[in-house]
Amino acid sequence: MDAHTCLGEPRLLISHEALRHNAGVLRAAVGDSVRICAILKADAYGHGAAAVARTLARGRLADALAVANLDEASALPEVGLPVIVFRPVENVYVGRQRNQLEEAIERGWTLTICSAAAAGDVARLALARGKRATVQVKIDTGMSRSGVDDIEAKEVIEAVSQQPSLRLGGLCTHFACADELDDVATAEQFRRFCEVTDGWVDANRTGRRPIRHAANTAGMLLHPDMHLDMVRPGLGLYGIDPMGPATGRQLKPVMKWVAPLLMVRTVRKGTSVGYGLTWTAPRDTRLGLVPVGYADGYMRSYSNRAKVIVNGVAAAVVGRVSMDLITVELGSVPSAQQGDEVTLLKDDPASPASAYALAELGGTIPYEIFCRIGSRVHRVAVDEVAAEAPERAVG
Average of pLDDT values for 209-222? Predict the structure, then answer.
């Protein structure tokens, strides 16, 4: 779908040129010897996972793709890149899990294992289908979320390596505080991970060496000594720097959110607006109506606080954000008229409508700003549309 198909409707304008640029910036940060696993979970953080996958594969900008769960993996197009599923395998024989895991084994996706029992379950499924399943062992080194405890990790790694129907494709962990420079906790997590895996990798003489990885965008940019074999950029691919907009790393936001002015009206001083009548016009002015609300991911906490951009000028959101609509005050934009485009999320890190600014207003992080934008907002490309990539393996 091109950028003109949905004119007159709320749209996310996705720049694949910016995506390619960011992938180049991240590649330069790690060099050619480190693999890049692009994180495409949550529909590529709301950017459209299918199109992002095609762009990255077409330009050989990533060596692997990663998603949160099996449903997300199934939704990806075939682009010839390895796929890693990060949700730990569990409840193998319950509900849809068996069919999904069988599909994963057939298609060669890497599954995440956090227990010897899960390794045994996957091994039996693979054996029954005459396949060898690829798995990675996730090790909890201090975040206390998912993963096998580092004390028990060697037992699980050995359990995987002893199963003829399993291939140990990776060993991984996840940092809790990677966005903090010189953080003691990150250094300790890395030490614990290496302590568990160094000896096993060095001693392993059977089959292909497993890929070790730990660093997300923050980890790869702030801790270059922790790149290991592969890094896992997510937010950086989409143009957001974990340290904020003023780092000089030249990442370009990939997403811009726009919607039309549905209506423009003149109101008198003293006119109140929206549910609860929380804003009252301090003077005669003009108001614009925009067809976006909290059902679309434009947070209710932006009420009477956020700014949008109309004809290049910042305009205030006034009154409460409702489910489907917001009202903006157009006194500073005398040229605005019905049909003009309103920018709710601007692809300029310095804008009052940037992901950084909206995250601060919402008391959250840019990840959530992207991920909460709903399906009613059309995703469209503003530059070259990612073509189908040839099917090929990237080693």
Answer: 95
Q: What is the pLDDT of residues 359-373, one digit of tens each?
A: 999 999 999 999 999
Is 131 catalytic? The answer is no
**Domain extents in the chain:** 15-238, 255-381
Q: Residue 207: helix, strand or coil by DSSP?
A: coil
Instruction: Tell me which of 252, 256, 275, 356 is the catalytic residue.
Output: 275
pLDDT > 70: what percent of the chain? 93
Distance CA 195, CA 321 (A): 51
Beta bridge partners of 291: none
Retrieve residue 277's tokens: 């009548």
Catalytic residue among 41, 138, 307, 346: 41
Q: What architecture (CATH level 2) is domain 15-238?
A: Alpha-Beta Barrel (3.20)
Tens digits of per-residue pLDDT, 12-27? 999 999 999 999 999 9
- 41 part of the active site: yes
Compare 89 and 93 and report the one with higher pLDDT.
89
Residues in the chain: 395
371 and 45 Cβ atoms separated by less than 8 Å: yes
CATH fold of the domain at 255-381: Lyase, Ornithine Decarboxylase; Chain A, domain 1 (2.40.37)
Q: What are phi and psi of 133, to 5 degrees?
A: -85, 140
